[in-house]
Specification:
By secondary structure, this protein is an alpha/beta fold. The chain contains 16 helices and 18 strands. The chain has helices at about 15-20, 35-45, 55-65, 75-80, 85-90, 100-110, 125-135, 200-210, 220-225, 250-270, 270-280, 305-315, 330-335, 370-375, 390-400, 415-425, and strands spanning about 1-5, 25-30, 50, 70, 95-100, 115-120, 140-145, 155, 165, 180-185, 215-220, 235, 290-295, 295-300, 320-325, 350, 380-385, 405-410.
Length: about 425
């Protein structure tokens, strides 16, 4: 079967393409721009990737080897309902679906039990930690994770595995397509306002997902905040009894690790103490407080809780924190701008660059850095900036002065993260 992935460079579609490739399917795909993810996929053997998403390009791929199934990212359909690749597939009677339908097919055909990692924040790190702990316990596992990890591919299919670990995203209600064997809920905060118009809508989606999971591991704070009814489906963790785990920095990361330890214990009955010892060796992953050069870090944090968690982690490293912040989507800023008030209260300086634009509402005005800075209680610490040589020199000066520079960037190709790698590491 030939599967074509539209938006193959995305952090959800890319791993699924790898899984399909490893499971023996013929895989091709396209994206609107090149990126490090595209380069990564090519290195893993997926070479038939085109940059540009017009009718002529997909027609050429189809002529060379007929496409049986087109899998598209949510962004593709949202940005353009008349997307040329979707129109082409419809005209040529090619099966079309989002990623969930393909993954459910793989799970059913290969008899895998789904372990889902869901929640507003911490999904990628928690998923990576679960993969790591399974590996350290020498338990075969298949998985999909939305970031590069130093101990495996972003996606892996192991025919001998019993479990499939999946970063189960609520965006576009993707997670509601699944009925997991076990779900880990990392935390429930309101997000993706274009999909869920109200907080109640968002909470209702999570309640439905919890009801579709045979078992769930959830935090007491989420039970309380979201008025979840306590049932036998829930294993509830006390927010105030997370082990210290001194080798893992950041309270957010320690919570993630503890939840994973509880999950693997529940699945395998291996001793908690042994699992904690194995988890203490977790090496981290790309773009989660990743150190590019000494004292220069890049992090994917882009929601208020994620940013707060990253800054708490940073303060465990140093008291002199400088932040470079690239908000993810202008659309999100219209909803969260008033929540910035005290977010950056304990840092030394803040450079605010223009928002990374994706899946935008064209009717919304583009909020400039200066406009967003005005919502801070301490705007005097912040200044607008651009991804240019001036910012590069300012970052270098801070590093020379011994400051820790934390760069927050949720975007992909052309983002602050890629600029940092090109400017400071050439990686």
């Amino acid at each position: 079967m030939h599967i074509f992935f539209s938006g193959i460079g995305g952090t959800a579609i890319g791993p699924l393409a790898l899984i399909a490739h490893q499971a023996g399917y013929t895989v091709s795909g396209s994206d609107k721009q090149t990126s490090q993810y595209i380069d990564y996929l090519k290195k893993q053997g997926i070479n038939n990737i085109t940059i540009g998403q017009d009718e002529a390009t997909i027609a050429a791929v189809h002529q060379q080897n007929p496409i049986d199934w087109l899998v598209y990212s949510s962004a593709v359909a949202i940005e353009n309902t008349d997307h040329p690749e979707l129109v082409f597939a419809e005209q040529h009677n090619i099966r079309m679906s989002k990623r969930d339908e393909l993954l459910n097919t793989v799970l059913e055909d290969r008899n895998k039990k789904l372990v889902a990692i869901a929640g507003t924040h911490g999904k990628t790190t928690t998923t990576a930690m679960a993969i790591w702990l399974f590996q350290q316990c020498n338990i075969p596992v298949s998985y999909s994770v939305g970031a590069k990890i130093p101990f495996g591919d972003m996606g892996r299919f192991d025919a001998t595995s019993e479990y499939f670990i999946y970063e189960c995203d609520e965006f576009d209600k993707n997670f509601l397509a699944f009925h997991p064997h076990l779900s880990l809920i990392t935390g429930i905060d309101y997000d993706h306002h274009e999909i869920f118009p109200t907080r109640a809508d968002y909470q209702a989606a999570f309640k439905q997902f919890l009801g579709q999971s045979a078992q769930n591991i959830v935090w007491q704070s989420d039970i309380d905040t979201n008025q979840l009814e306590n049932t036998e489906r829930y294993s509830i963790l006390d927010d105030n009894t997370v082990p210290a785990m001194k080798t893992i920095i950041g309270q957010v990361n320690r919570r993630n690790a503890w939840q994973v330890v509880q999950a693997v214990h529940q699945l395998t009955q291996l001793p908690i103490d042994d699992l904690l010892e194995k988890m203490s060796t977790f090496p981290g992953l790309s773009r989660r407080f990743e150190q590019l050069i000494p004292n220069l870090y890049t992090d994917y944090a882009h929601t208020i809780p994620k940013i707060a968690g990253c800054l708490q982690l940073a303060h465990e490293v140093s008291d002199n924190i400088v932040v470079v912040y690239e908000p993810l989507t202008n659309r999100r800023q219209h909803y969260i701008k008033q929540e910035y008030a005290t977010l950056f209260k304990d840092i030394k300086h803040l450079y605010w660059v223009p928002s990374y634009l994706a899946r935008e509402d064209n009717d919304q005005a583009i909020l400039k850095p200066a406009e967003l800075i005005a919502y801070l209680d301490n705007p005097q610490i912040a200044e607008p900036a651009e991804l240019d040589e001036t910012l590069a020199q300012q970052i270098k000066k801070h590093l020379d002065d011994g400051d820790v520079v934390v760069c927050l960037s949720g975007g992909g190709g052309g983002s602050l993260d890629e600029w940092l790698r090109t400017t400071f590491t050439n990686a």
